[in-house]
Amino acid sequence: MTYDLILGDYAYSSWSLRGWLLLARFGVPYRVRLLDFDAEASVAQQLADLAPARTVPVLVTPEGVAVSGSFAMAEELASRHPEAGIWPKDARARATARTLVAEMHAGFGALRGDCPMNLRTAYSGVTPSAAVLADLARIETLWQHARATCAPTGPWLCGDYSAADAFFAPVAARIAGYGLSVSEEARAYVAAHLADPAFRRWRAMGLVRGATLARYAKPYAAVPWPGPVPRPARAVAEGTPENMACPYSGDPVTDLMESEGRIFGFCNPFCRDKTVADPDAWPAFVALRDGV
Description:
This is MaiA: maleylacetoacetate isomerase. This protein has three domains: 3-84, Glutaredoxin (3-Layer(aba) Sandwich), CATH 3.40.30.10; 91-201, Glutathione S-transferase Yfyf (Class Pi), Chain A, domain 2 (Up-down Bundle); 234-290, no CATH class.
């Protein structure tokens, strides 16, 4: 059972990030179709074949039904794949996770508007408005409530990674990207998202696919991204790769990357470039490189 997943720009579409995590993080098979945020046609126009859907993400079921909205996607996928763990198994944790997701889905307009997700840059010197500070205070209240209610032993809100964490991943990106001040406990939760391999894969794709869109830029000083520093790598035109098949597709290699004195091959520039952006984020490449 493979789904079609229609997404916006990897670097800027926070709603798309939530939808993608619901499949990628829980092992649900999917194919991606990307819309162009730099096109003259609006997102709704680009989705004309899937009307009445008007925004991304959109999940198309194997039966051809378009499910629009990440909350609807979470519910539909959880009902179809109960084994995936999209919602916590424990009733108390599950109810808490659904409460958090509902509020995240419907609220925090000031944070969304003043601090749009931009995974291509990070800023310093941001002075948040009173409305943004109120949003952050409410978010911290929700996170504290989840941890107090569910008593997780790991970094996630309700036990194992769940839909609640997928929905708050873009919030973590905003807090990190704009250097917003939160408590030590909240900073640890944000850091867990930045280090999560799935989040890192999404950001790596956002760095190399699509145009840099000026409308998302803010007039603050740019600083390095606050997440883990990727292992050095670069695209190269020549060399003898250690592998003859792309670690992702299995197709013959055509494009090369050098990392720490070693050459690896990929089947197209995107496969290479997303790996260059963050080599350790990609399990298939790590298995090739490290022989595991």
